[in-house]
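Incident log, structure service

09:12 report received: a user says their structure output differs between two submissions of the same chain.
09:20 pulled the input from the user's history:
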Amino acid sequence: METAGVNQILTLFNRLSKKEQLAIADQIDKQTFAERWRQIDAQLPDVKFSDEEIMNEVRAVRHERKKD
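09:34 re-ran on a clean worker, output below:
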């Protein structure tokens, strides 16, 4: 079986109704999410925060929002 090229797939995709396109896009998103997250996560620094440090940040953000 020959693999379809990106342009061929996009041409077929564009022939579908908007509802079908959204359903397919949602399925692709679900199928690729884990791999995309793995790639992004590999680029992030591995910083350890204590629970108290996290709560201090949450409180600081909440406090700033109340000023607005």
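09:41 both user submissions now match this output. Likely a transient worker issue. Closing.
09:42 reviewer note: The CA atoms of residues 13 and 20 lie 9 Å apart. The first helix runs from residue 6 to 14.
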